[in-house]
Amino acid sequence: MKLDGRTFEGVVLECGKTSGDAETITFKNGRFHSSACERYGYGDGPYKASARRKKGSPSRPRPSPAVRQAPLEGPDSRPAGSTAR
């Protein structure tokens, strides 16, 4: 999704509250602006966006080899020749 030139409007809510402050997020000319942040002295700033990687991509995080997975349970998980249930 291309962000530049897009504007998103919504409401900023505090956790547990049902009403809040209006918010407009704007992406324009490679810069990001949040109207809700203005009161805190923040202006716009550069942003960088990239497409999501496909599942199985080489840069996808892999589990650590130190993490052991739970053993499988069921008839196909018994050692060959085992008849134990």
Largest sheet: 4 strands, antiparallel
Instruction: Tell me, rounded to a whole number, the average pLDDT.
Output: 75
Instruction: Supply the helix-strand structural class.
Output: mainly beta
- Dominant shape: extended
Tell how many strands the DSSP assignment holds: 4
Through-space gap between termini: 52 Å
What share of the residues does DSSP label as strand, in percent? Answer: 15-25%
Radius of gyration: 25 Å
- Percent of residues in helices comes to under 10%
Number of helices: 0
Give a verbal description of the structure.
- It is built from no helices and 4 strands.
- It is mostly beta strands.
- Mean pLDDT is 75; it is low at 69-79.
- The protein has a domain at 1-49.
Structure keywords:
single chain; 85 residues; mainly beta; four-stranded antiparallel sheet; 4 strands; 0% helix; 24% strand
Task: Record the SSE blueprint.
Blueprint: E1 7-12, E2 21-28, E3 31-34, E4 45-46
Antiparallel strand pairs: 1-2, 2-3, 3-4
Give a brief rundown of this model.
The chain has 85 residues and is an all-beta fold. The chain has strands spanning 7-12, 21-28, 31-34, 45-46.
